[in-house]
Amino acid sequence: ETFNLVQLADETADMLHMTFQRMIRVHTTNKQDIRLSADKEKIRQLLVILIDNAIKYSKEPIDISLSMHKNVVRFSVADKGIGIPEDEMPYLFERFYRVDGARSRTTGGVGLGLSIAKRIVDLHEGQIDVFSKPEQGTTISIAIPQKK
Length: 148
Ligand code: ATP
Fold this sequence. Notes:
33% helix; two-stranded antiparallel ribbon; alpha+beta; binds adenosine-5'-triphosphate; globular; 29% strand
């Protein structure tokens, strides 16, 4: 199944903007059309998980960036929120893991989001990376090789 990732990101951003009234910007470097052959509904779910986390753990606008270079599709979701402490990084993708129960209690959630995100990325033989600084924000980047 081949679809336009830019369009999917726009749709997902619009949907979450309407629901949560948060500004979500979509940026693309080269073209308006990034064809990805992947499981569209799983990629949608992946975007929802990452944007939903950005909404929960930040207050400023959220930035989604998309690009394609040499048959690798990359996208990231960036927020300027509370960030993730360095020592928690290794556990983020474990099921039911949540950073510091106290700070997370108010946001709800069970700690499944990122473990599902990781699984979806693995299914596509991709890579997921987390860049984060406490009090500055978090960027989660995904790279998915484009099948030929
Ligand atoms: P849910 O199952 O509803 O997604 P959750 O958000 O707690 O619940 P994960 O998405 O797996 O679970 O995230 C795990 C933990 O990583 C969160 O509890 C949160 O502390 C931290 N985290 C994830 N994304 C961010 C982010 N954008 N900014 C700060 N912390 C984050």
